[in-house]
Amino acid sequence: METVPKPGKAVPPKKDKFMAKRKKPRERKKQQNQRGLSGAQDPFPGPAPAPADVARKFCRIDKSKKLPHAKPKTRSKLEVAEAQEEETSVQAARSELLLVEEPGFLEGEDGEDTAKISQEDIVEAVDIASAAKHFDLNLRQFGPYRLNYSRTGRHLAFGGRRGHVAALDWVTKRLMCEINVMEAVRDVRFLHSEALMAVAQNRWLHIYDNQGIELHCIRRCDRVTRLEFLPFHFLLVAASETGFLTYLDVSVGKIVAALNARAGRLNVMAQNPYNAVIHLGHSNGTVSLWSPSVKEPLAKILCHRGGIQAVAVDSTGTYMATSGLDHQLKIFDLRGTYQPMSARTLPQGAGHLDFSQRGLLVAGMGDVVNIWAGPGKGSLPSLEQPYLTHRLSGHVHGLQFCPFEDVLGVGHSGGVTSMLVPGAAEPNFDGLENNPYRSRKQRQEWEVKALLEKVPAELICLNPRALAEVDVISLEQEKKERIERLGYDPDAKTPFQPKPKRKGRGSTASLVKRKRKVMDEEHRDKVRQSLEQQQQQQQQKQKQKAKPTGARPSALDRFVR
Q: Sign of dihedral through CA atoms 390, 395, 401, 407?
C-alpha cells in the first residue's frame, strides 16, 4: 500500500513565491595575504595605520552629540557624511608624514635666558637664506610707519605718516611700487591678493594696485584710523574718528553696513580669524564684538580700568590679548566665558599686540619689543618670562608676524625692521589656498574660485558651527504659521482608508470592519506608550523616595504612598 511521503522527508516543502525571489547575500571572502610575483608574502598587509591622536586633530565632527531623530533616508545621509569625514581625517593623518618642514625653535645653553639672545647672535647661527630675512630700512624722514603682510607672506606693504607708501617682495627685495600721496597715511592693508591694497589717508580711503596707480577713492569712508580685511567674505572694515564702523564689499564695491559704535574715536581694532568678528577697544576699558548683520554689539567685555590701547586675537579664535592705560596685559578666554586667564603688569603700557600662527604673543612698548611663547599652537602663552626681547631705533607704531615665515615685521619712527623669531610661523602651507610661489595665472584662477566660494556677510556670528545646526524654534514657528495659513496640517498622518477588494468581497461591512481594526491597533499602541511612561515616572519617584541603607524603620512609613 502506497503512502504519501511527508513534506519534511522525501518531498521538498512548497516554496513561497516571495521567498523564491530573494537572493542569498554574497559571503565576503576573507582577506588573504596577497603574494607578489616572486611569491613573497606582504609583510604589511592592509592600509597603512594612522595614529588615533593625529586623526582626532583633523576630525571636524563632534562625536559627543548623537545624530538627531530623523527619517531613515536623512539619517542614512548623515551617517554616510560622518563616515566620509572620518575617512578624510584618517587620510590627512597619513599624509602628515609627507610634511617634512618642522617648526623652528630657540634653545639656550644650560641656565641661559633666551631673552638675552640678540638678533645679531641669531643671524650668525642660522643659514644664509634665513639670515637675509633680517634687515632694517632706514626711513626716518617719512616715519612713523604702519605695515602689513599679504596672506601668502611673500609681499610687504608699508606707509609712513608723511605720505610715503611702498610695496615690495621682501624675500627677493624686489620693489613693486613706491609713491608719495602727499597726505598723512594712517594705515595700509592688502586686499584678497597682493595686486590690490587699501590706504587710509588723512581724508578718504583710497585703493591702489601693485603699480601704485590709484583705482578708487571711497569718499563715504572718511577720516579712517584703522583697516582690517576679511578674506573669506571679501569685506574691508574701516574704523573712523567719527565712531562709525564701515563694512565695504570689495567684490561688488558696495557698502554692506555702516554701524555707529557710539563710543567716540575708534583707533583700536582687531579681527578674529576664526569667526570674522571685529573687536573694538574703547576709552572706557571695554572691548565690543561686532558683526555687520547686527546693529548692536554681540558682546561687551570689561577688560581694564583705563582705556584700551591694543587688542589681538589668536588664529584659533580661543584667546584675546588686551593692554590698557593701567599698564596691564591680559589674556581672555573667548570660548563663552570671557574671563581673564592670565595677567601681567608691564613697566610701560603696550601700544601694539599681535599673535603668530603658532601662538606667540608680541607686545610693542615704546622702543622695546617683547615676545612671549607657549607650549604650542592653540595654547596659552606664558607671561612669566619673555621668549625674546629687542630694542629698536624708534618708537613702535605697527607690528605683525609674517605668515609661514619666522619673521616679525615692526614699523617704527625710524623705518621698518624685520626680526627673526624662531618657531613663530606654521612651517607648511596649503598650496591650493596660500601659495607663496604661485604664478600670475595661478593667482587669477585662485581669485575666481575664491569669489565663487565667498561667504555672505549675514553669516558672521560668534559661533560659526551654529550655522550647521537646525533651528528647532524657528522650524516649529514656521510650521505653526503654515497650519494657520492653510487651515490644516499637511504633514499630519492621513486616516486609514481601506482599498476596495475584488468584486463581491468589498462590501461596506467589511470595509468598516477593517477600518475599525486599524483604529483599535492605533489606540492600543497609544495606551501601551502611556502605560510605559507612567511606569518610568513611578520608578523615578521610587528612586527619589528611596531611603539610604541602614535607616531605622518608622511607624509612619505605612502612610507613605
A: negative
Q: What residue type is assigned to position 407 of the chain?
A: V
Q: Is 534 helix (H, G, I), strand (E, B) or coil?
A: helix
Nearest residue to 448 (alpha-carbon basis) of 274, 273, 251, 256: 251
User: CA nearest 260: which of 276, 232, 280, 274?
Assistant: 280
User: How many of the other CB atoms lie within 10 Å of CB of 48?
Assistant: 10
DSSP letters along 472-525, please? HHHHHHHHHHHHHHHSS-TTSPPPP-PPP-STTT--HHHHHHHHHHHHHHHHHH
Quickly count: other Cβ atoms within 10 Å of residue 530's Cβ: 10
- Residues paired with 409 in a beta bridge: 400, 418
Question: Which cell is 100 given?
Answer: 617634512
Q: How many CA atoms lie within 13 A of 197 on its CB side?
A: 32
Least confident of 164-178, 332-346, 374-388: 374-388
Of 139, 140, 144, 141, nearest in space to 168 by CA: 139
Yes or no: say if 281 and 330 are a contact pair by the CB < 8 Å rule: no
pLDDT tens track for 473-487:
787 888 888 888 888
Whether 29 has a pLDDT exceeding 50, the answer reads no
The 340-345 sheet, strands edge to edge: 308-313, 319-324, 328-333, 340-345
Contacts 24+ apart (CB under 8 A), 336-339: 338/299, 338/301
Query: Residue 439 corresponds to which cell in the numbers above?
Result: 604664478
Strands of the sheet with 244-249, listed across from one edge:
224-230, 235-240, 244-249, 254-260
Strand pairing of 388-391 and 368-372? antiparallel
Closest CA to 230 of 164, 313, 296: 313
Q: Yes or no: say if 179 and 165 are a contact pair by the CB < 8 Å rule.
A: yes
- Between CA 148 and CA 40 the distance in angstroms is 59
Task: Report the half-sphere exposure of 42 (CA within 13 A, side-chain side).
Answer: 12
Query: What distance in Å separates the CA atoms of residue 102 and residue 109, rounded to the nearest whole number?
Result: 21
pLDDT average, residue stretch 353-363: 94
Contacts for 210 with CB less than 8 Å, ≥ 6 apart: 167, 176, 177, 194, 195, 196, 197
Give yes or no for a contact between 425 and 357, defined as CB atoms under 8 angstroms apart: yes
What is the CB neighbour count within 10 angstroms for residue 227? 24
- β-partners of residue 230 are 235
Amino acid identity of residue 379, one-letter, is S
Coil, strand or helix: which one is 45? coil
424: buried, middle or exposed (CB in 10 Å: 19+, 13-18, 0-12)?
A: buried
Residue 2 clears pLDDT 50, i.e. is over it: no
